[in-house]
Hints:
Elements: H1 3-9, H2 15-25, H3 32-46, H4 49-59, H5 65-90, H6 115-129, H7 132-144, H8 149-174
Helix pairs in contact: 1-2, 1-4, 2-8, 3-4, 3-5, 3-6, 3-8, 5-6, 6-7, 6-8
Pfam families: CMD
Function: Antioxidant protein with alkyl hydroperoxidase activity. Required for the reduction of the AhpC active site cysteine residues and for the regeneration of the AhpC enzyme activity.
Protein name: Alkyl hydroperoxide reductase AhpD
Amino acid sequence: MSLEDLKNALPDYAKDLKLNLSSLARETDLDDQKKWGSFLATAYAVGEPTVLRAIRAEVEGKMDPDAANAAKAAAAIMGMNNVYYRFIHLSKNKEYGTLPARLRMNLLANPGVDKADFELWSLAVSAVNGCGLCIDSHEAELRKHGLTSVQIQAAVRIAAVVNAVAQVLAAESAV
Length: 175
């Protein structure tokens, strides 16, 4: 399965999603590793099988296997962190923010790829998972690494479309 197959799997009412998938695949504001890593990390974050298979197939040969692993790792660690830090952010009891997380996050120190790439993928997954605290943290780190608003927005646009495609396909498979 490829990105083209994924577009073909979408119903007619999701035509905008098809068009967005095409334009994002041609995105030039991000280098290929950042772009395809954003696709892969968010596909793992949403976990919808058709989306995941198509994006994995599309990414193969376009990303170094270690980078692909790091993108998957970003989805994994953010799956945990986004829930935890969203709780910290949303809880009225601010004491939770003063307590140590006591969750292993060693990956963040050495993700195995350029730190900016990993931060970008983590931001994209955080956008899908709706963690404002994580979004702000990763965005600040990306700024330190010199990424522009346009580049950051590109990764979030990828996340938004991958998420929407997954929702449509999940809904269609349920009826």
